[in-house]
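Problem statement: downstream parser choked on a complex file, so we are re-checking the raw output for the pyridoxal-5'-phosphate run. The parser issue turned out to be on our end (a line-ending mismatch), but while we're here, posting the original submission so the record is complete.
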Amino acid sequence: MLAESFRAHFPVFRDSVHLCSCSEGALSDRVMVAMSEFMTSWRIHGAPWDAWMEEVDRARQEFANVIHANADDVAVISCASEGAFQVVSEQPFSSTRCDIVTTDLEFPSIAHVWLAAEPRGAKVHFVRHQEGMVTLDQYLQQIGETTQLVSVPLVSYANGLRFPVKAIASYAHRYGARVVVDAYQGVGVLPVDVNELDCDYLISGVLKYLLGAPGIAFLWVRPGLTPRNNPSLTGWFGRRNPFAFTPQVLDFADGARRYQTGTPAIPAAFAATAAMSLINELDAATVFRHVERLTTQLQNELLNRGYRLFSPLDASQRGPQIAVWAEDSEHLANFLKDRHIFVSPRGHVVRVSFHFYNDDSDVVNVIDGLEDYRRLYPSRISG
Ligand SMILES: Cc1ncc(COP(=O)(O)O)c(C=O)c1O
């Protein structure tokens, strides 16, 4: 599908500039139809659980297709934090193997789940960024005989830095550590093949670059990975047969379904299936080239005009966003929102993020908006 045809699926572009996919992807016509199909099925059939379960399995399959995995290796969960919890709950922490290595560019709720494991004997180490950058060496220096879990974001939410996941994972495996990747800020725009990443677990929700709605996320677990403990969070969807209804029997399902808990978010599953069906019609390499061209264009324009950026300048380390320094990022984002330009403020940056639906006109519009803001509030934005 061409980028123009893809853009036509997203009504927001009729009157607005959507550049906040790092926060929430744009709503497509396909997702709108799918969500109304959910309501229709409820209205007409009362309790169509079989059809709804099929929809959940379709969402699982679409996600598996996005990351080149088998659907049996994918658990349907409610949010990324739940995935992190399930991962850490099966790690045995002992006095000789207790370390969790992560980074301060990790999304907070993932890092918080690691920190919450400290009372169980875990010790969390943060690889600290310098000016938004983390090097491979910094990560490797933290990994050793006592490492139980290495956590690497595919792309940082904070500034779009891409991490060398494969190199970190291969090194961690030499020490017998397990590797978990939060792919939320990349999957949907970066080509992702779990087999190539060499990680043990991969987590993502769907509401950013996978263009779905809140309420559903996925945990991929490497096939054949021996569980070291049962997950401590469970529910009937974690059973071999959820519909056996035997409260006395706690039989964990084979494959990734063992990490599932209670009733999946059915409306979100409808949205996720529709959204990822669109993504799966695209060629991932073409999508990334398109996004890279737009981020490069925006970066060059902003650097030429003297803006200060927090995102990596080198294209090989840059994800789908450009992070622009602002004294009051909420103020700037609201200023742009009044002009129907949607960006995402976080701390001292405004994140301008791209998908296959964005085009050159969006770059021009956001630059015009930033320049207007700078004319009005010169001291509040770099340059
Ligand atoms: C990298 C990353 N991980 C996780 C999350 C969210 O985690 P959860 O699904 O637990 O809310 C976000 C953003 O909301 C994110 O950017």
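For whoever reads this later: The first helix runs from residue 3 to 7.
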